[in-house]
Design goal:
Blueprint: H1 2-6, H2 13-45, H3 50-98, H4 102-107, H5 110-132, H6 134-153, H7 159-201, H8 203-208, H9 212-237, H10 240-266, H11 273-315, E1 335-342, E2 353-360, H12 376-383, E3 391-396, E4 399-400, H13 406-411, E5 413-416, E6 425-426, H14 427-431, H15 440-449, H16 453-457, E7 466-467, H17 476-489, E8 494-497, H18 506-515, H19 526-538, E9 541-547, H20 548-551, E10 560-566
Parallel strand pairs: 5-8
Antiparallel strand pairs: 1-2, 1-3, 3-4, 6-7, 9-10
């Protein structure tokens, strides 16, 4: 896990290393300052010459300035390294999610993925920052101060032999009690985000059924649950402060009483006033270092759960991948199912599809009928290899879909679902998802075929109209027609309409169906085209041929396009 996360540091190795260097410098200087201060106190006590006092005082000021500079530079480089690390981590997670198949995504809820890329990444970023700064500084300060305390205070430093174990034991017990509560919180964050996402997506339904109070109660319960866990954990962690205060004041009282006695009885020979003042400072620094180490331990333990959840995403291997030598061209739009059976999970008891044999020739229009839940959508998802079959094979253009380059295959298959999504951006931006290089003329032609041109032009900004996230500022029927136009722009070999006109009136539905055949020959070979032209003429259609370049500038490889019309009317 550490190795996987460390790989996300990449170009931020330099600021990370610089942070470590300057932190070591800051810790060393801060440990050395009480030593110089003790000398200054002794010089003043023994009425040393003013020049000597000033010289030591200026050196002390210089040391403080150096410590400040080291700390400031370390803070800047640490901020750059930690934010860069978080950016790379989010990038790698998002890139990994984009490579997931539906099977992979089914293992994570969308709310869980959002939590992992936001809250969990923030926790790991905070831990990374503490590791390269506080987790280096505090142990070094602890070691340096212990060494200097024994050098300066001799036997007086034995107070730390009592105080330090007590503090360490107390901090470990506090952390041990707090950790289970922190771990539980992150699993509950997923449920909270899921409740928020569900509520926002279904806002119209919630208001339509006047269920706002119910949703508030549901959200409040989830939020209260998280609050309770955090409160419990924070109450335990809050014990750090009184424990720390107890150890600090015990140390201070012990040094003041025993140290003062030694100074008086020995006449400053065993320990002097300056050394005693240094011991007080070192004692405070030692205990503060332990306090910070305990807080680091709590944070690291808490973020370990976040790191684990992040690594689950990064370690997840896509269930679908390209073969070693993929086919990069789809010959035609023929589709064949040979003995296909499919279930969504290896643990599933029932197959969604069983023993399917289906053969569709290029150029055919086929209707697949079935009741709700009869796996119609499951069937079409196998064509573009959104899932792999459990048994049997699916062939497109005579080639098993598992042998294709997935991008090539999916660019040759266009699917328009009943519930399609539009993305935030202009209408043109959304249409060009089907073909990034489509000209404005092609956009208009596709929208005319999908019966979307009229309502698009009714908007003040026409094709430059801004679409809100999810297409919330257009109706369901308008959204479906734009999605059909987007699919037509792909000029696919296989066009799949999965109840794609459910929100469209019957007249518009008929016009869309009448317009689509003008594109139906894009995937036909010349022999199939000639056969179908002859058949259509026999059935009473008047046919014209036109240069494809005139009608479809992006399909110059098609020799002719058939324009169909009844003899008795256009």
């Amino acid at each position: 896990m550490i190795k996987r996360l460390a790989g996300c540091v990449r170009e931020y190795k330099k600021p990370t290393i610089l942070t470590l260097i300057f932190i070591v410098g800051e810790a060393f200087i801060e440990t050395f300052i009480p030593f110089i201060t003790a000398k200054l106190v002794n010089l003043i006590k023994y009425n040393a010459p003013m020049e000597q006092v000033v010289r030591i005082g200026l050196f002390l000021v210089l040391m403080a300035c150096l410590s400040l500079c080291c700390g400031g530079i370390a803070g800047a480089t640490c901020a750059k390294a930690s934010t860069g690390f978080a950016r790379n981590l989010r990038h790698d997670m998002f890139e990994r999610v984009q490579s997931f198949s539906f099977e992979n995504i089914d293992r994570f809820s969308s709310a869980s993925l959002v939590t992992r890329m936001t809250t969990d990444v923030s926790n790991v970023q905070m831990s990374f920052m503490m590791i390269i700064r506080m987790a280096i500084r505090c142990p070094l300060m602890f070691i340096f101060c212990i060494v200097m305390a024994f050098i300066m205070g001799g036997k007086l430093a034995l107070t730390f032999v009592v105080v330090v174990p007590v503090l360490i034991f107390g901090l470990l017990m506090i952390a041990r009690k707090a950790m289970p509560a922190f771990r539980a919180v992150f699993r509950k964050y997923d449920r909270l985000n899921e409740s928020i996402e569900e509520n926002v997506r279904a806002m119209r339904v919630v208001k339509g059924f006047a269920r706002e109070d119910y949703e508030k109660q549901k959200f409040g319960a989830a939020s209260e649950d998280i609050c309770g866990d955090f409160t419990h954990a924070e109450r335990i962690v809050a014990l750090n402060s009184p424990l720390m205060q107890l150890c600090v004041y015990f140390n201070m009282v012990f040094i003041m009483i025993v140290g003062s006695k030694l100074v008086i009885t020995s006449g400053g020979q065993t320990i002097d006033v300056g050394q005693m003042s240094a011991m007080l400072t070192y004692g405070f620094q030692i205990l503060m270092s332990l306090m910070m180490i305990s807080m680091i331990y709590v944070m690291l333990t808490m973020s370990a759960e976040s790191a684990k959840r992040i690594c689950e995403v990064l370690a997840e291997e896509p269930a679908l991948s390209n073969p070693e030598n993929p086919v990069t061209e789809v010959k035609d739009g023929s589709v064949d199912f040979d003995g296909v059976s499919f279930k969504y999970s290896a643990k599933a008891k029932k197959f969604a599809l069983r023993d399917i044999d289906l053969h569709i020739a290029a150029g055919m229009t086929v209707g697949i009928l079935g009741g709700t839940g009869s796996s119609k959508t499951t069937l079409i998802q196998l064509i573009s290899r959104l899932y792999d079959t459990t048994e049997g094979s699916v062939r497109v253009g005579g080639v098993d879909v598992r042998d294709y380059d997935m991008e090539t295959l999916r660019n040759s298959v266009a699917v328009v679902l009943q519930k399609n999504l539009l993305f935030s951006g202009t209408i043109k931006d959304n249409l060009r998802w089907g073909n990034p290089d489509a000209t404005d003329e092609e956009l208009v032609a596709a929208c005319k075929l999908a019966q979307a041109d009229d309502f698009v032009r009714s908007f003040p900004d026409s094709y430059d109209t801004w679409i809100e996230q999810g297409g919330t500022n257009v109706s369901g029927g308008q959204k479906q027609r734009l999605c059909i136009a987007r699919a037509l722009l792909k000029k696919p070999k296989v066009l799949i309409l999965d109840d794609s006109t459910s929100a469209v009136d019957t007249r518009t539905d008929a016009l869309i169906r009448a317009g689509i055949p003008t594109l139906s020959y894009v995937s036909c070979d010349p022999a199939t085209l000639a056969r179908d032209v002859k058949l259509l003429r026999e059935r009473g259609y008047a046919l014209q041929t036109a240069e494809a370049v005139d009608l479809f500038p992006r399909c110059a490889h098609i020799e002719t396009v058939c324009l169909l019309s009844r003899q008795e009317g256009a």
